[in-house]
């Protein structure tokens, strides 16, 4: 069975399709093999899950196709791992789950990915079509259940349509605002055999088309920035996902602007950059008169953009790929709809035409520097305390001392995450993974497994450090076993 599937995969897709029309080949291929081949064709490289009836054969076929399959202890953690692959690579990972409870466990992971705007594909086995509504084993309305947690949720109507549904799921997960997609596979599809030539594979979907902001809006944004008395850039995880680090850093340095990263925006520009005002976060938010948002929503993380955390007349310039996001909670001064990387380049061109710098000796910079200095001194004082039990600052100070610059930092918990964020430094983009937009606890070990697999595959020798509150750790604690069997040498605890 595998020989047939792998042989047909080695063919170029166009040749496969041509063969289907011409040579009358009677070779058979199973539903599981079609799924694996369709995923491989869409450049899916990682699959996480828990196998059982009816999806075991899908995992086996995927492995034979060269997709890395990692068996986990809970579908939720498997989903977290797959979604982290999507964030870190820009190409979705797959979470493979069994019907009913398996799929329900994965809903938390889907919701988390969707809330974070991270690409993810969930493939769920479901009960046989012939037993639908009869009380079949683990029967559940899975396609409907997933709609609330995904951008796209569908069941192929036949084995022959599996490749186009998988292509659509992968494409939907990365086009526009990224998110989760669900593909439902009835049990009777998995081992059903069809003529190999009856299956037409879709070509790998293209990378997302790049959209740019209107030129007039770019001019307006540049004018608002030039006229700002107290400007601030906020760098969110959308900028990290967009791989906009080079452009945003140029903008910050060319215009000498202060910037503030959101938790997962940390590292887009290194935390120790002189223009980073994270140590004066509250002050910066409260008194800025112009704020440029690069891929960060005005949700709870940014206090909705409203007073008393902000000036009532602060001017927001929003850069986002999602039109529906623009204007949420506040009326922005300028909206720049487009890919952050492309929009940043447009802004840079504007400032190239008419160079401008925010004066480094302004009273705003002075205020921010003073506040940073006093806050840093307070943290240092806490970190130097030798009382037992140790306070968080002391612990994190010593951890930070040991951390390699290029490590991934995975963090969750309440104080553990909040205080840890202020002490543990990120120097590289997409190297911090935490509870995110949904504030989900239990994500850490799944995220860490994904990061370690990538470090291993890329042969970077990077370490992954999990800084976990005990309660957060408990949600997915059994995944330590997955770590031990998958990639133990990449972890520091
Ligand atoms: P944070 O949690 O760091 O504040 P959010 O998750 O709230 O960040 O916001 C990320 C935003 O980035 C989302 O609104 C999303 O639509 C946007 N986004 C994601 N990818 C891109 C991209 N390539 N270009 C522009 N915006 C993007």
Largest sheet: 6 strands, parallel
Task: Name the strands of the widest sheet in spatial order.
Answer: 3-2-4-5-7-6
* Secondary structure: number of strands: 17
- Number of helices, where a helix is a run of at least 4 consecutive DSSP H or I residues: 20
What is the first-to-last residue Cα distance?
43 Å
Instruction: Round the mean pLDDT to the nearest integer and report it.
Output: 94
Low-confidence stretches: 1-23
* Radius of gyration, whole Å: 24 Å
Q: Approximately how much beta-strand content do the residues carry?
A: 5-15%
Bound molecules: adenosine-5'-diphosphate
The helical percent reads 40-55%
Sum up the overall morphology in one term.
globular
Structural class: alpha/beta
Notes on the structure:
There is one protein chain. This protein has 493 residues and is an alpha/beta fold. Helix content is 43%, strand content 15%. The chain has 20 helices and 17 strands. The strands form 4 sheets. A 6-stranded parallel beta sheet has the order 3-2-4-5-7-6, sandwiched between helices. The chain has a 5-stranded parallel beta sheet with strand order 10-9-11-12-13, with helices on both faces. A 4-stranded parallel beta sheet has the order 15-14-16-17, with helices on both faces. The two termini are 43 Å apart. The relative contact order is 0.11. It binds adenosine-5'-diphosphate. Adenosine-5'-diphosphate (ADP) binds at residues 116-117, 177, 236-238, 241-242, 262, 264-265, 295-297, 299, 301, 320-322, 325, 339-340, 437.
